[in-house]
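CORE FACILITY INTAKE
Project code: CF-77B
Contact: R.S. (postdoc)
Sample description: multi-component assembly, four entities in total
Requested service: structural model of the whole complex
Turnaround: standard
Below are the sequence entries exactly as provided by the requester. Do not edit them.
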Amino acid sequence: MDFSYSDEQFMVYDSALGLMRREAGPGLCRDAYREGAGVARRLVGKLADQGILGGNLSEAYGGSHLTLLDYALVFEAAGQALLPFPLAESYVVTAILESWGDNQVRERWLPAIAAGKTIPTIAWGDGQGGFETGGVQSVKRQGRIRLFGRRTFVPFAEVAGLVLTPAYSTEIGGVFLALLEPGRPGLAIEPLQSLDGSYPMAALSLDGYALDEADVVRPGAEAWQRARTIALAALAQEALGVAEEVFRLTLEYVKVREQFGGPVGRFQAVKHAAADDYLLLESARVANRYAAWTVSEGDSDGPLYAKLAKAYAGDMARRVTGDAIQLHGGIAFTWDSDVHLYFKRAWRLASQLGRSTDLREQMARRIIDGRFEEGDGHGYSL
Amino acid sequence: MDFSYSDEQFMVYDSALGLMRREAGPGLCRDAYREGAGVARRLVGKLADQGILGGNLSEAYGGSHLTLLDYALVFEAAGQALLPFPLAESYVVTAILESWGDNQVRERWLPAIAAGKTIPTIAWGDGQGGFETGGVQSVKRQGRIRLFGRRTFVPFAEVAGLVLTPAYSTEIGGVFLALLEPGRPGLAIEPLQSLDGSYPMAALSLDGYALDEADVVRPGAEAWQRARTIALAALAQEALGVAEEVFRLTLEYVKVREQFGGPVGRFQAVKHAAADDYLLLESARVANRYAAWTVSEGDSDGPLYAKLAKAYAGDMARRVTGDAIQLHGGIAFTWDSDVHLYFKRAWRLASQLGRSTDLREQMARRIIDGRFEEGDGHGYSL
Amino acid sequence: MDIRFSAEHEAFRERVRSFLTEVLPEGWGTSKHPYPRNPQEQAEVGLCWERTVYAHGLAGLSWPKEYGGQGLTWVEEVIFSEECARANAPAGVNGLGKGLLGPTLLVEGTEDQKRRFIPPLLAGDEIWCQGYSEPNAGSDLASLTTRAVLDGDEWVITGQKIWTSYAHLADWCFVLARTDASAPKHRGITFLLVPMHQVGVTVEPLVQLTGEAHFNSVTFNEARTARENVVGAVNDGWRIANTILSFERGTTIVGRHAHYRREFDTLLDAARQSRGENGPIADDAHYRQRFMELWSEIEILRFHGYQVITQLQTKSRLGPEASMLKLYYSEMHKRLGELAMDVLGGAMPFAGGLDSLAGGDLHRAFLWSRAETIFAGTSEIQKNVIAERVLGLPKDGRP
Amino acid sequence: MDIRFSAEHEAFRERVRSFLTEVLPEGWGTSKHPYPRNPQEQAEVGLCWERTVYAHGLAGLSWPKEYGGQGLTWVEEVIFSEECARANAPAGVNGLGKGLLGPTLLVEGTEDQKRRFIPPLLAGDEIWCQGYSEPNAGSDLASLTTRAVLDGDEWVITGQKIWTSYAHLADWCFVLARTDASAPKHRGITFLLVPMHQVGVTVEPLVQLTGEAHFNSVTFNEARTARENVVGAVNDGWRIANTILSFERGTTIVGRHAHYRREFDTLLDAARQSRGENGPIADDAHYRQRFMELWSEIEILRFHGYQVITQLQTKSRLGPEASMLKLYYSEMHKRLGELAMDVLGGAMPFAGGLDSLAGGDLHRAFLWSRAETIFAGTSEIQKNVIAERVLGLPKDGRP
């Protein structure tokens, strides 16, 4: 029984946070609001050099075998530094390709991602407001797989060299994951306007895109479920980072902002809001830790606890970043204040890959109704 | 446009509150926890003498034509004084009998109720956790109506001389309201243990009870809907009274209770809780006022606003009485403190005739789905 | 008690409806004819709106006729507000003049001031802004440092004000300035009326988190105004400021429910089209509860408004209980914004998604709601005011 | 990080399960064999339980062997607590001794004190109660007025204490008493161990709002204890009290999640049978959200417990962050109680209704939860402690 991160894990964290604070932070985040997905190009090389991209891979592909648990604190750092980069997507794509891809797929994509030559992303949305596998159909024509359909909520699509999307094949009657290369014919990207302007999202339309036979990963449903589970744990950790950073800034601010003859932090209303927020933060922290561990271990309870963590951390981050605005007062409402950058990021994270209410309803099917989804464990116990 | 009570209405209130504070209050409420429904007998004569019972009736039956709006403040006083008496039931029974009963029914029951000779009550519960008309069937045998079945949540059944209950007749294929006399054969009363020990409830079993033809009120469904609407408005107003009284006591207490060298009321945590509670109280007050007016006017929106008022006031009273415990600290947790009497009454009121969530779901059917229930208005507008 | 509007009032409502039908283009404020987004265009529309309302005899409804008002009552004001909100009529650019300065002048101004300032204010010929907050004087407004010194027949004003909406359009500003630095901080403040079009006044836009510049920073650098442009007595400005604050916190709620109701209806439409784990959000019991809680709260805001009107018919102004209403609607609106984000859900971060049906109104409402619990007195300040001045709880050493 | 329990620990869990199966009657704590309601009977069961646990070598699991403990770790304590909660094992009557006094003595006591007091405490031969709160010293505990004066070789104690659970059963009381009236209020307090069975001690039951008398008022009227029965130094009692408070607020959470989990399961069963406007409550999306929020919070309490154990394995005690956990579970339990009342709904006010399935457990949980945010430091006090001692926010003039 040991519920703490190791010194090695903290070293990975410190170095990631150091890099991200230097190279990203509120400054780059603001640039992203103006420039869009392009800012990711300024980061990708630096993240690769430090071994952050593909760090989970085996050495053969340029990685260092970091587990999701090792990596969890890196996602936290990304939240703290408001990183405008599809880090969760990058992690998920490499993890999925290494586990489920064949040799050809792995050789083709993994070294390029680890080296920062290709930014990967994922077409999360099914176009119905959900994050299921629907939306893209495959048809065989003249011996080639042709894809038709639409997916939404594709982060940083404009700079991605690889888009992972689920698709449905009528021929084989099942779901597979397709690896798409933007720039090839039949693939169009349409930007969506985002509340979090530093995390550009797009919709993806496929109109006869010719998919190479090699760029297919199966079994799609299982891999997609795993992709979502890992992403939920990663986003939960990023939300924690966002909230803890703005909470730290808020604490600093209320210690120095004076009104009525002293720092506003001496008022009980401020203290109690801070105490409540701290409690939520620390609770999200242990929830995330447990989720990262179970997901990392491949525990059958992983999906359940990833949902718990994401729903809790998402709600927490909405609340804590909202309180940060309130406790900063009017100044937080100006564009020049950094507070809104954290606020918008937190609210985006909270809705990404499912509202908290959606995730809890999924949990309820298991805990209340005793129904198990594909990939869920059956061993739920105390 | 005049949204205030008249001087006459305040006079009725002052005199009712004066009487109830003298004759009831926390003292009698405690007695009721020990003695049960019997305490209502100590009150009935005094309430009758002051014209409170049947005050809504015409002079012919000993009343003074008070509308529900006139009477609303009397229910508030009953809440403030923790009256252990089925006042809402008494009001509803007289109102229903005067509107829907025939001459025989009115002559038989109304003067007795107004004079305090008969305490009436209502069998609210349908035995399925709801407050619909089901649970009792009537069968004609040897020319007499025989009743079979069970209803629950009958306040003060042990001292009631008249119980109003809905029943279903297979012969006429409809719902009617039956007027039952406890003590006659075929009617059994089984006490239920109540959280609010000063408001005893019972279940009622009917096993071949012989109902006089005269003791029937029709149309039952419409009258029952009206009974519930009036009762919701009355309970909402009683909940307001409970909450405002305990809030007043709490304000007094935090002004004098000293900790850390001064009254605890100087702490912002206490102030802000008090301000929040006050806002809820005053909001429930205007919601109740609007509901009492629409119900009193027979407005088709009455049922909707009675639900709004009851759900809001119920939630408010739970919160305000809960805060009263917290703000009083440990002392509120002792039996000798009055605070728990208000707390338990508020929580009972909040669940009576439907949880707030049930009432809001009923409202949603109309506001969200555009479905109208029997008796609901179709004129919903701004 | 009689909550019905009288026949005269219903006739007035008809008149307002006809007016709105006549002057607004068909489909105004819907996707058919969306509200202008360009600030310049918004300002033009707003200014035009002020003059149109005035030209139709609908400005200053409850204000005395001798100053250009209509001599009617608060009931007509409510009806007008409700109908404008329902029709999504333009916001106007003189809200601070009409909502705050005008009512204050009517109570505290001299006869000359009323005759000089109120008619052009109502006509939309002079637009007003408010010079209150400073970078270091927010909640603690009385610690303001902008100073005014008498120089012969003129006040000379120096200092910086922030959060001054409409300053770039305004002709006049009502300013709180320190005129006696040696007095206790609440005692040395004067309420001045200062012309904006002069060399000593600089207006700079203050971009807020929505990306728009609705507010400004205004710098007074030896700006001048005539000696008689003081409301109330010299050094009595704090009292005047409190009068105006209770207008800001109280009477501005009248009719406001109709505005929230329109947002609510927009949101409910979105909920019918948006899907969650249980199908359409409008069918999900969790969201139905939240919708009905909000609907109830908006209705209760309407009732609070009736209460205020009834009170204003007998007393001419509101007391500290006005703090209650500002607290009520700002916190309620925050919940509405949060519900909107949940309803839009996966589509939430994307103004191009479902919310585009409403022209992005729900996003704007969400972001603005975060300011409403801060401006015009934070929720924390309102609670202090309620606790101390309404409920009589002891002060804790604060001045 | 490795959250799994080791093979040894899993074996220990099996041992505890066997123990519980062996000593508890079949169906214990269910409607089949309900928990005794009569206070006298409860006390007998509780005392018997203390001795049974001790006799099976399961008392003082993490305490040193030389004082009668088992020399194991916090992990075994957690496992034992979890299994007891799951089996609804009796509460015991020496929780204050085991949870508070014992750990304090182990850290702050003299060797003689440890040898004298800990073995009988663990054996259930001496029961302890806590003499802290006074009628005028609740949140502001340091303002206590019970005084102790040295008279030769004995302390003479006079004053009144309240909220002393188990006082009617206790052999000893640990008392905070003022020993230097002239010192600043935190500096003149001493921590004394006082025998209960003497003429100067009077115990009176304090009936609480549940109608039961779980607490007492204890009056010391020149009660006496030996001079050496001081823990820590004379006038250093406040520091000792803070040590003990952090035990009370922190370590008592370990294993507590299992207790809430049992309540949660009971409540979920009730929700399957209870009906609302949308059919069974367990199928209603509104309630499903609330259930899953609570389930998540109970799980998070379990994780917090793991964090505490991990911390205790390296450090021997907790800091002020322990306040966080008391705040967390007490506020969470209040929400559980409220959900219970909503689930029972129309049947809520009636202990004879649905809740009878659970022997009235849900009602008791609801009512008790209202005390939990008050006792052992109110939620407001906990928040102050977190804000000031953990987050470093400035004090505001309070001592």
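Facility notes:
- The CA atoms of residues 191 and 231 of chain D lie 6 Å apart.
- The mean pLDDT of chain D is 90.
Invoice: internal transfer
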